[in-house]
Design brief:
75 residues; mainly alpha; Arc Repressor Mutant, subunit A; 4 helices; globular
Length: 75
Protein backbone atom coordinates (compact mmCIF):
# COMPACT_ATOMS: atom_id res chain seq x y z
CA UNK A 1 0.00 0.00 0.00
CA UNK A 2 1.41 3.39 -0.92
CA UNK A 3 1.31 6.66 0.96
CA UNK A 4 -1.77 7.84 -0.91
CA UNK A 5 -4.18 7.03 1.95
CA UNK A 6 -1.87 8.36 4.65
CA UNK A 7 -1.47 12.09 4.22
CA UNK A 8 0.55 14.55 6.22
CA UNK A 9 -2.39 15.53 8.45
CA UNK A 10 -3.08 11.92 9.39
CA UNK A 11 0.48 11.02 10.30
CA UNK A 12 1.06 14.12 12.41
CA UNK A 13 -2.30 14.29 14.18
CA UNK A 14 -1.03 12.44 17.28
CA UNK A 15 1.35 15.29 18.20
CA UNK A 16 0.28 18.19 20.40
CA UNK A 17 -0.97 21.02 18.27
CA UNK A 18 0.94 24.29 18.57
CA UNK A 19 -2.13 26.21 19.72
CA UNK A 20 -0.65 27.26 23.04
CA UNK A 21 -3.00 25.01 25.01
CA UNK A 22 -0.24 22.62 26.06
CA UNK A 23 2.07 25.52 26.88
CA UNK A 24 -0.57 27.15 29.09
CA UNK A 25 -1.12 23.84 30.89
CA UNK A 26 2.63 23.50 31.53
CA UNK A 27 2.76 27.05 32.88
CA UNK A 28 -0.19 26.38 35.20
CA UNK A 29 1.43 23.18 36.45
CA UNK A 30 4.73 24.99 36.98
CA UNK A 31 3.02 27.74 38.97
CA UNK A 32 1.14 25.24 41.15
CA UNK A 33 4.31 23.24 41.84
CA UNK A 34 6.26 26.38 42.75
CA UNK A 35 3.57 27.47 45.20
CA UNK A 36 3.20 23.99 46.67
CA UNK A 37 6.96 23.62 47.10
CA UNK A 38 7.05 27.00 48.88
CA UNK A 39 4.62 25.70 51.50
CA UNK A 40 1.27 26.79 50.09
CA UNK A 41 -1.45 24.18 50.70
CA UNK A 42 -2.25 22.10 47.61
CA UNK A 43 -5.79 23.46 47.26
CA UNK A 44 -4.63 27.09 47.41
CA UNK A 45 -1.81 26.38 44.95
CA UNK A 46 -4.29 24.75 42.59
CA UNK A 47 -6.67 27.71 42.71
CA UNK A 48 -3.86 30.25 42.30
CA UNK A 49 -2.61 28.40 39.21
CA UNK A 50 -6.05 28.31 37.61
CA UNK A 51 -7.23 24.80 38.43
CA UNK A 52 -10.79 24.27 39.66
CA UNK A 53 -9.65 22.42 42.78
CA UNK A 54 -6.86 20.21 44.11
CA UNK A 55 -8.41 17.13 42.49
CA UNK A 56 -8.23 18.80 39.08
CA UNK A 57 -4.57 19.65 39.68
CA UNK A 58 -3.82 16.13 40.94
CA UNK A 59 -5.47 14.45 37.93
CA UNK A 60 -3.64 16.69 35.49
CA UNK A 61 -0.31 16.25 37.26
CA UNK A 62 -0.67 12.46 37.38
CA UNK A 63 -1.62 12.37 33.69
CA UNK A 64 1.41 14.46 32.71
CA UNK A 65 4.05 12.99 35.03
CA UNK A 66 2.74 9.64 36.27
CA UNK A 67 3.02 10.53 39.97
CA UNK A 68 0.80 12.28 42.48
CA UNK A 69 1.35 16.02 42.99
CA UNK A 70 1.36 15.54 46.76
CA UNK A 71 4.56 13.47 46.52
CA UNK A 72 6.45 16.67 45.74
CA UNK A 73 6.13 17.95 49.32
CA UNK A 74 9.55 17.63 50.92
CA UNK A 75 9.61 17.51 54.71
Amino acid sequence: MGTKGCGRVHTSSWRPRPTGRVQRLWLRLQRAVELFAAGTPLTEAAHAAGFADSAHLSRTFRRMFGIAAATLRVS
